[in-house]
Specification:
This protein has nine helices and eight strands. The protein has 222 residues and is an alpha/beta fold.
């Protein structure tokens, strides 16, 4: 299939293959927020299955129909999830990358129980202790993981991080990778279009890549 987005995906796949230990299975999440299904169809037809969205309403509108005939598609919530959107979210997403508070954990547990539904979660870590960012401080990660896993019975599979926008990206990735291992978690969600190669070096298993595949966002309404 001769298509620009497919070619970009193939280049990224090849880069990842050449970067590090190929015994680690990695998934590329195509961050598809704000892009229409028309733009994504070449990827879907190519067989790509992991896509990332950040709004419940957009996800419901965009993906409900196409998933009726594409059962293998997995949608990841990569943005902040409000507790009042949880009931819909557990039916729309297979993965939520932004588990960042006990209040959200409580709401997710309640919704899962009421709907007999289980999905997978990443705990968002605020590695730079940035006031403007959500996430759990590193020092509280173990206690929060225990609360989510044992008190709320949530299927937490790894940590997620968006590092501060400075020259210490590798340092942050290394810290989160070490913490992930110490907590005994299998998966690690980190790395975007500009830094996924660095994330691979530190054992990321889910890479959230948007513009690197789809190009710049226009933020037009769907």
């Amino acid at each position: 299939m001769n298509n620009e987005v497919i070619n970009k995906l193939k280049v990224i796949q090849e880069n990842i293959k050449n970067l590090n230990d190929n015994s680690i299975q990695r998934s590329i999440i195509c961050v598809s927020k704000t892009f229409s299904i028309d733009k994504l169809m070449p990827l879907i037809d190519f067989g790509h299955t992991h896509f990332g969205e950040n709004k419940v309403q957009e996800t419901e509108m965009k993906w409900s129909e196409i998933r009726k005939t594409n059962k293998n598609i997995k949608i990841h919530m990569v943005g902040k999830l409000q507790t009042n959107k949880v009931k819909k979210a557990i039916h729309l997403f297979e993965f939520i990358h932004s588990l960042d508070s006990s209040k959200l954990a409580d709401a997710l547990n309640k919704a899962e129980t009421e709907n007999n539904k289980k999905i997978s979660y990443f705990i968002q870590i605020n590695i730079g202790n940035e006031i403007q960012k959500s996430g759990i401080p590193t020092k509280d990660a173990k206690n929060f993981l225990n609360y989510c896993k044992f008190d709320k019975k949530l299927n937490v599979i790894g940590l997620m991080v968006i590092p501060p926008n400075d020259e210490n990206t590798e340092k942050y990735f290394e810290e989160v990778s070490k913490l992930n291992s110490e907590l005994g978690l299998k998966h690690l969600s980190m790395g975007m279009s500009s830094d996924y190669e660095k994330a691979v070096k530190f054992n990321a298993t889910f890479l959230r890549i948007g513009s690197g595949i789809l190009g710049p966002r226009t933020f037009k309404k769907l």
